[in-house]
Amino acid sequence: MRVGYTPKPVPSLCMKDDKVLANSPCIPGTAGEGCLVISIENEWTGNYNAQFSITTTVPFQGLTILITFDNPVDTLDYWQGHVESTDSTHFTLTNPELIAEANDLIEFDIHVQYTGNKPIAVAVIMNEEDVCDGTGAWTTHPPLENPCLPTGMTPYDYSQVLCMSYLFYEAQRSGPLPATQRITWRGDSALDDGRDVGLDLTGGYYDAGDHVKFGFPMAFTATMLAWGIIDFADGYEAAGQTENALEAVRWATDYFLKAYPEATEFYGQVGAGAPDHSFWGRPEEMTMERPAMKIDASAPGSELAAETAAALAVASIAFKEVDSSYSSQLLTVAEDLYDFADKYRGLYHDSITDAGSFYRSWSGYGDELCWAALWLNRATGDSGYLQKAQDAWDEFELGGDVTQFSWDDKSAGAFALGSMLDPTNSQYKTALNTFLTFLKNDAKYTPDGLVFLDMWGANRHAANVAFIALWEAKYGDSAEAADNRAWATGQIGQLLGEGSRSYVVGYGANPPERPHHRSSSCPWPPAACTTNWAQMQPGP
């Protein structure tokens, strides 16, 4: 297929029978042989028209061509795109909308105007590769070499999948990236976060396929990552993933510490949803303003502060034997944040109003107050936190119907944790059994057998509740252990390919190839990242 418009084919004035013609315009006397991808079609005093022509070897979107001439050019016209000049001999041609498949013929005309010696192209770089010899043998960025090697486990390689799961979090990193970064197509980004309020709020994680740092779901993410480390430690060690897991947690907790500059002040969001979602591109290239938004004593956010307290408390346990000083710092801030959450009551989306359109706290903050108090009890051994958990349970009537375990509703997690920490209190165990019975007997399922709890993020809902069931199988009532383990194992199997496909990018049968993820949906080498590369429009 020919890509681009050429008025009429003109034989090259440079080549014949694969040899450079003597005295051809591609031989500029003292500059040596010109580039074979550009052939002069016709010329007149101080002007010539030339054709660029090359056959692709790989598909790409977006054309960027850097041309170097041996003599000064007055003007260069490229009618199908945009031209910028660095100086009189270096020009950049761009066409971000050009789409090409492998073996397409890229052809277009340029017009060169000059004064003095005729300028001849002596170097042509197309999409970051030298194509001056006319071969067009450039390639796209090579696929990321999977650093997570298969281990041979059957029927699913859980160790490999666990390793690959942490690659996702590396792809979500905001701020200056560390030397240990394994997702090499990511770069430093959002380095000015917090500058508008005089703070360094770099770091943390971007949300989903977006570039906002929403503190509420980020805190739940950190809580769950750390919970897995401490209660399934043997599995992490066997898979060789403890170090990666701790690094993933610390990327969040370091950010939370930055976001807590004063006793009753916590920055719970950086970036605004609407401007962010109107931009489809890499975080390294975003230019929109990224306001920092906070809760404080006059504009509280109990669920945000409490969930962050929970995350820091769990992380303090995970780091206790690894970095005791850091563990103590996390626990001190966790206790302060819990006091802030409990003393200054209020829904966080009433204070950080932008969050209400994306991560509204539908369940309120009672579940977070109970959940965080339980984690603080486990981290400190202070029985006063068990009483605080009980107070929240009674005040907010937390033992009612629960159908999910997610960034919004932590009740099911509180059921599980409470059954461990307060075993003589039957309320937790009863509620946990009721929840698991609902999942196994009354919840909806897909035709393949995946528990279907919500149309938004069906897989993460299934994974979250499978975690609760596996946790109960290990730490709960032995009479239900085998049943709960079998059910949860089946759910994980659904995610890894037991049904129609694997849902882990790069793993198993028929895995996803184009996730809804701005950072990874753009072409390489860097060119324009347009909605043609998005499988869906940007969304929360």
The count of strands amounts to: 17
Q: What is the count of helical runs? A: 14
Largest sheet: 5 strands, mixed
Oligomeric nature of the chains: single chain
* CATH architecture designation of the domain at 2-130: Sandwich
Distance between the termini: 38 Å
The gyration radius over C-alpha positions equals 29 Å
CATH topology tier name of the domain at 2-130: Immunoglobulin-like
Strand content: 15-25%
Structural class: alpha+beta
Bulk shape: elongated
List segments where confidence is low: pLDDT < 50 over at least 5 consecutive residues: 5-32, 530-540
The CATH class of the domain at 2-130: Mainly Beta
Mean pLDDT, all residues = 88
Helix proportion? 25-40%
Descriptive notes:
Keywords: Carbohydrate metabolism, Cellulose degradation, Glycosidase, Hydrolase, Polysaccharide degradation. Its EC number is 3.2.1.4. The chain has 540 residues and is an alpha+beta fold. Among the domains are: 2-130, Immunoglobulin-like; 383-499, no CATH class. The chain contains 14 helices and 17 strands. The strands form five sheets. Strands 1, 4, 5, 7 and 10 form a five-stranded mixed β-sheet that branches. Strands 8-9-6-11-12 form a five-stranded antiparallel β-sheet, with no helix packed on it. Strands 13-14-15 form a three-stranded antiparallel β-sheet. Helix 6 runs antiparallel to helix 7. The two termini are 38 Å apart. The model is unreliable at 5-32 and 530-540 (pLDDT under 50).
Fold topology:
Elements: E1 2-3, E2 15-16, E3 19-20, E4 38-44, E5 47-55, E6 60-69, E7 75-78, E8 82-87, E9 90-100, E10 105-113, E11 121-126, E12 129-130, H1 158-171, E13 213-214, H2 215-231, H3 233-239, H4 242-258, E14 265-270, H5 273-277, E15 292-296, H6 302-318, H7 324-343, H8 348-351, H9 366-380, H10 384-396, H11 411-421, H12 426-442, E16 444-445, E17 451-452, H13 458-475, H14 478-496
